Amino acid sequence: AGLAVAIVALPLAMAIAIASNLPPERGLFTAIVAGFLISAHGGSRYQIGGPTAAFIVTVATVAMKHGYEGLVLATIMAGIILVLMAFLRAGEMIKFIPYPVIVGFTSGIALLIAFSQIRDFFGLRVETVPPDFLDKLAVYLAHLHDTNIVAVLLALASIGVILLAKSRIPKIPGPIIVVTLSGLVVWAFSLPVETIESRFGAIPSMLPSPVWPEITFEKLRLLLPDAITIATLAAIESLLSAVVADGMTGTRHKPNAELMGQGIANVASGIFGGLPATGAIARTATNVKAGARTPVAGMMHAFWLFIFMLLLSPLIIKVPLAALAAILMVVAWNMSEIKHVREIMKAPRTDRIVLIVTFALTVLVDLNFAIQAGIALASILFIDQMMKATHIRAVEREENDPDSIQNKSIPEGVEIYEIQGPLFFGVAEKLVDTLLLFEKPPQVFILRMRYVPLIDAAGLHALEVLHERLSENDTVLILSGVNSQVHRFISKSHITEKIGEENIVDHIDKALRRTNEILSRGEG
């Protein structure tokens, strides 16, 4: 299983590093060091870690802004953040990221990956490609006349081989066939296309010595947003990959242990000259299909990659960049989540809005801002939906339920209203506005809360304001049907001292008995 995964990981690790505008050996270092540690210390028995396509845009941007030294420090910081997330048991919290946000940024990353490969796919002679989407588009359009037809044909043939291998010989990874055949063809016919050797020269056959980057407060401050982006993406990708493995094997991973393993691996990857790492869904699936049973398969995959680098370095550098670009084009298509995008586009309007906004911000701004904005927008739209789902209305006598007031005696001068749904900041103002509906202030106002499952600080404040406004008109507030959890929060807020413990009851019958006591004593 480890050997099978290593064969898949070898071309991907190099392609991802090159796509990030870094030497291919950086990807190999990451796959070896981080791949070993993620399997050794993670929370999934089947997880395969290493550099992934999801990091390409972020890594390229950080390396361009802060240099490789800055990327190393950001990777180490991200690792520390992941370790802290594990200690804080944040592994379970990742599942609360809205699904449209995940699909939106994943699809956006897929587009950016495919777009980043246009230079090598078309063989364009561009020294430096800017990180921004629109700037990149302008550069490509300006150099389209330099298209290398041989590179294009080689890339298209590589895609064809990958697709053919998947349908005809699924047990043999298409990428390894592509890099082998393309390297042989380019060497045999001396084709005029760029190779790893022509752009980067030789690659080392050993791991580098561990080196700590220079650390200053200013660097930490500048790199913190990027480190948070890397950590967030690593957490999401690794846990999604672990879930996929669980679905294929019927097992259950440990999310917080997985975050711990990811954190350790990213710190080590940075020290050993690598890139950010996370769980790789395709490689993890390959590991499962190849018969893996324990984390040893993942550790063996790292060992085999080390052997490849040790023995095959002179051959690896003959691989044409157009073939690696074709491999990443296929990876981008598989990441694009087209099927899931179509499903969400048939979902409620709020989900469609979140998907489109997250996708657009990922492509046009950056991943960090896209995730933050997507989660914020999804939260706001969810609150809006909850506000609409929470009703505050007058209770009518024709209601047909076990506790209906239809057969109960309601004295004159009593108003009964009911809240249906959580009483939180989104609906607190609506509660106070119910007072505007009264032509004449009642003597007693009963607020039925039997369908209020929870209350927050704004809801508690709204009850306090409601009591004060009613008291100005000598109206007594009675809370009816208050469950134990809501009652506990009300008691902790000391609102009971104002409303009165005797005016907070758990059933409408008790509320009506209390109402009769108030009216008989003339308290209203």
Describe it:
With 524 residues, the protein is mainly alpha-helical. It folds into 2 domains: 2-338, no CATH class; 392-521, STAS domain (Transcription Regulator spoIIAA, 2-Layer Sandwich), CATH 3.30.750.24. Helix content is 64%, strand content 5%. It has 22 helices and 6 strands. It has helices at 2-19, 24-41, 56-87, 99-116, 118-121, 133-143, 149-168, 174-189, 196-200, 217-249, 255-271, 281-289, 296-316, 321-335, 338-345, 349-364, 367-389, 425-433, 457-472, 484-492, 496-499, 508-521, and strands at 49-50, 278-279, 391-394, 414-420, 444-451, 476-480. The strands form 2 sheets. Strands 3-4-5-6 form a 4-stranded mixed sheet. Strands 1-2 form a two-stranded antiparallel sheet. Strand 5 (444-451), helix 19 (457-472) and strand 6 form a beta-alpha-beta unit. Helix 1 packs across helix 2 (24-41) and helix 4 packs parallel to helix 16. The protein is elongated and about 105 Å long. The protein starts with a helix and ends with a helix. The mean pLDDT is 89.
Residues in helix, %: 55-70%
Measured distance between first and last alpha carbons:
79 Å
Q: Within the largest sheet, what's the order of strands?
A: 3-4-5-6
- What is the succession of H and E elements? HHEHHHHHHHHHEHHHHHHEEHEHEHHH
| Overall number of structural domains | 2
